[in-house]
Known about the structure:
It contains 15 helices and 11 strands. By secondary structure, it is of the alpha/beta class.
Amino acid sequence: MSPIKYCAKGMLTFAASSFGEHNRANQEAKLWVLMYHRILPKADARYDLEEPGMVVTPEVFAMHLREAKKLFELVSLSDWLARASAGQPLPAKACAITFDDGWLDNYEFALSILQRYRVPATVFAVADKIGTPFRFWPNIVSELIAAKSPALRSHPLLAQAARLIELPYSRERVAQCIGQLKAYTEDALFNALEAIGWSSALASNGPALMDWTQLAALTASGLVEIGCHTGSHRRLNKGLAAAVLDQEIATSKDRLARRLGQPINLFCYPNGDFDTAVLERVKEHYQAAVTTQHGINRLDSLQPHQLLRIALHNDASDSPRKFRARLSGWR
């Protein structure tokens, strides 16, 4: 980055952190929903293999909670929504913490930080993958590139990834490749990976997601609510059969409720993808749902099944000023 661009970016960050909506006295109730995925130390081998936009270190996450406590009333997402639905008084500026996917590191690193600061959160779990050796396809691709696996050359769909094994490993380049591969369906991607024998090309590094005991421990803390992130993490794009939607939206909810012994009221769209049919089905089964669309939720225009969120990752929020700039609502 040139000195001029660096200076301009610093000035914009300062302006956003100082003058954004998080610093204003509100007349109407607003809700900030923060979106996290993984909480990993930089020394952890998993950190270097993850997309930059997916991970925050424990130290940065703890700083986020300290800063958020200065600005907001930190709330349970379900509780805030219930109060809004009932017409009860709400804080002018509320903030809810959410985690997508149900990663094992949420149990290993995030839970103790939530407990230290007594902050409620919602974890959106992939019902059919809990306690299984399942890996998300972006992580498989990232690990194959890092291992410079020649197997990537064996399938035309993976040609973009294969080109990267000739270059030094770069998380940013891998993230760009993963974004391009999202043009294909999950079925197509997993079929291609199975065709090249990905599992034999990689050494197993243990489970990626929590098991049922760990998920139950989160709820037993009294701070964490579990929401549904579908059954298989399939992106809910157009054209999915009704039976598939039922499996991903309704059956997955029932499985979580049965195994955890508690109601499941919240839903999260994988990759933020949904259409009208998906939205209507989600409305039938859930109190609310979160998207990946950037923004701040306002009570007077609240869409409970299309809640806006603010994505957090280390590179964009590793100082109080950068974190506050993310909260501003500016892009």
